[in-house]
Write a structure and sequence with these properties.
alpha+beta; Elongation Factor Tu (Ef-tu), domain 3; OB fold (Dihydrolipoamide Acetyltransferase, E2P); six-stranded antiparallel β-barrel; 12 strands
Length: 240
């Protein structure tokens, strides 16, 4: 009888734990765009052209704005002319060396070295020209343009904010003990403002718990191909 009385509390605790585990899990959070970056240029200069406006979509690799590039374009043209000349000299020297042997191996090596140097300098000039063009690193929408044509910009000064909302994140915090109930790639539901619900998958559960709050950070990703969901709104993550 005494043994049964000792087992009774343990059974109650186990039943309570199972009941809690079976309860639907719900946590509050916020939605965020899949990618959100502020772009700048490594080179200083005067903004010469702007090709997109705020709110417009851009494709990956498209030029959003560029600095004055006249000097860099001239340098590319000059380096290209030198490269073509050195290439012609190298090819003619190689042909003479292989057919008549009237030039030495040393002369051929010198011509090849000069061509390699000219090729490197041409590529440097091309890269310096590219550095004066701000291009989109991914497809998205421009949400903010901080400077416009005519303005001077410093190196790495924020110029454009670009976001990708084709997918979105739910970001929230959960009790550290309850976090063990979530698994990577587990399907969940996200309830948005207005009652709309979308399917999502857990993509991150923090391996550590914040010592001050006892909470762990959780992220779930969901598709937003039509862009109807605007990131930044409050949401709830639901696990049945």
């Amino acid at each position: 009888m005494y043994k049964s009385l000792l087992l009774f509390p343990a059974i109650c605790i186990a039943s309570l734990c199972l009941a809690r585990a079976a309860e639907p899990l719900q946590l509050d959070g916020i939605t965020e765009p899949f990618r959100d970056v502020t772009l700048g240029l490594a080179e200083p200069g005067i903004i010469h052209q702007q090709f997109f406006q705020e709110g417009e979509p851009v494709k990956s690799g498209e030029t959003i704005m560029e600095l004055d590039t006249r000097l860099e374009e001239l340098e590319v043209a000059r380096r290209k002319a030198v490269l073509e000349q050195d290439k012609a000299v190298m090819e003619s020297t190689r042909e003479v060396f292989q057919t008549t042997k009237s030039v030495s191996k040393q002369d051929l090596n010198k011509a090849e070295a000069e061509y390699d140097v000219a090729n490197a300098e041409y590529n440097i000039a091309v890269q310096q020209l590219a550095n004066r063009r701000l291009t989109a690193p991914f497809a998205g929408s421009i949400t903010e343009i901080l400077l416009h044509p005519g303005a001077a910009c410093a190196p790495y000064q924020p110029l454009v904010r670009l976001v990708d909302t084709s997918r979105c994140y739910f970001v929230g915090h959960i009790d550290g003990v309850a976090a063990s109930r979530l698994q990577m790639d587990e399907p969940v539901k996200i309830e948005l403002a207005g009652g709309q619900t979308v399917e999502a998958k857990v993509c991150f559960v923090s391996p550590v718990v914040d010592a001050a709050s006892g909470l762990a950070r959780v992220k779930a990703v969901f598709d937003n191909p039509d862009g109807k969901i605007r990131p930044g709104l409050a949401a709830k993550l639901l696990v049945e």
